[in-house]
Amino acid sequence: MRYALSGVLAQVLYLGLIAGGLAAGLHYLVAIVAAQAVVLAVSFPVYRRRVFHSTGPVGRQLVTFLGVWGVGAAMSLVGVPILVEVAGLHPLLAQVVVLGVIFVFSFVSHQQVTFRQR
Known about the structure:
Number of strands: 0
Shape: elongated
Helix content: over 70%
Strand content: under 5%
């Protein structure tokens, strides 16, 4: 439940930043990358302390977190253009669709790898 709440709040911020970038005239891929950077900076400490209550080694967790986040970012940077350019979806709607897959992947990866209790 904590992951769902934190994840939803992070995604609301993320989608809001993308919407703001689009409204400012940014290309959707630039808006996605900028939003990723902001939300990444907020998410690691929240997930580590509030969601998974982890006390493990910060350095290892940060590297693993960045790896999981990078895979999710790659999913967005590949999936969103396909849905926009091929399927004709609006970039924000395309990102929402892709986020469904990323959300599940990210939770399982962080639970089983990044913040696993040893």
